[in-house]
Amino acid sequence: MKKVVITASILLFVGAIVYANNRFGLLSMAGLYGKGLPHKTVKGSLAYAPEISTKNIDHSEWTELLKKYVTDEGQVDYKGFLQDKNKLDDYLNALATQVPTNDWTVQEQLAYYINLYNAQTVNLILMNYPLKSIKDIDGPWTGDFIKIGRKELSLGALEHSILRKMNEPRIHFAINCASASCPKLLNEAYTSEKLDEQLEDATSGFINSDNNTISKDKLELSRIFKWYKDDFIKGELIQFIDPYTEVKIDPNAKIRYKEYDWSLNEQD
After folding, report:
1. What is the pLDDT of residues 71-124, one digit of tens each?
2. Is residue 263 assigned to a domain?
3. pLDDT in tens, 132-179
4. What is the DSSP code (8-state) at residue 266?
5. Given pLDDT bands bounded at 50, 70 and 90, which one contains residue 23?
6. Which of 243, 242, 231, 237 is nearest to 255 (CA)?
7. Mean of the per-residue pLDDT values for the chain?
8. What is the DSSP letter of 157?
9. DSSP string spanning 89-143?
10. SS3 for 148?
11. What whole-number distance in Å separates Cα of residue 265 and Cα of residue 182?
12. What is the DSSP letter of 159?
């Protein structure tokens, strides 16, 4: 009887790992703790969320680097980025000293966390460069290396324990995992003033890119829609996608998911 219980426990544990990997595209769910950092939730549409605040986070240094080393298609010149690694470090150090508070608007928090995620992903690649895939790095999403004040957290924590909890599904098309199948890295910083427009453009651009093949009766979608399905109108993928396409999708259209290309999004 004891052996049966142990075997069942092992099977449940393995099943949980398989589920986590299929659900989130990660081999481990460890290190996904948000460390108590504040994150407001979007209520209704971000376009109508209050923006009144005296806080002004300067992301211009990040924009300068992005415009210099990222193409309009989102391809990254990592070799060139290495030459300005000190400027990237300066930007990340500046973000680390500006700890978000509940006094910030939801737009300011979102822009801060999105930019931090993208800049730290580039930083992670540069720290391990050269490489062919972010998956060549041991635990890229679970290691605590991102500093915010006195706290350190992982990319996974930033995504799953903060950004995803802010009730803005379009963040999935703004954060970049340095891979070919990821939404492209925007070559300008996200800002609180332009955030709704930027997220809308990023979402439309990704849905209508080669990452998805959409017809009336069949959808071949990026695995992002599989991993984070419940984030999109409680899993109603067609309802979420339809407004962004010129195709009028049949509500009963079949959905399949494409293979994910984890090769580095490096400029040739």
Report:
1. 999 999 999 999 999 999 999 999 999 999 999 999 999 999 999 999 999 999
2. no
3. 999 999 999 999 999 999 999 999 999 999 999 999 999 999 999 999
4. B
5. very low
6. 237
7. 90
8. I
9. HHHHHHHHHS---TTS-HHHHHHHHHHHHHHHHHHHHHHH-S-SBGGGSSSTTTS
10. strand
11. 8
12. I
**What is the side-by-side strand order in the sheet with 213-214?**
213-214, 218-221, 254-257
pTM of the model: 0.88
Q: Which helix (H) or strand (E) holds 214?
A: strand 213-214
> Is residue 266 assigned to a domain?
no
- Tokens standing for 148? 């915010």
| 203-208: long-range contacts, CB 8 A cutoff, minimum separation 24 | 203/170, 203/173, 203/244, 204/244, 205/173, 206/173, 207/173, 207/241, 207/244, 207/245, 208/244, 208/245
- pLDDT digit string, tens, across residues 206-225: 999 999 999 999 999 999 99
Any domain includes 48? yes
Q: Does any domain span residue 265?
A: no
Give the DSSP letter of residue 223.
T
**Is 24 in the same domain as 100?**
no
Claim to verify: residue 39 and residue 24 sit in the same structural domain: no
> CA 111 to CA 260: how far, in whole Å?
26
Residue 6 has pLDDT above 70, yes or no: no
Q: Return the CA Rg of the chain.
A: 19
Is residue 6 located within the same domain as residue 79?
Answer: no
CB 189 within 8 A of CB 66: yes
CA pair distance 120, 140, nearest whole angstrom:
11
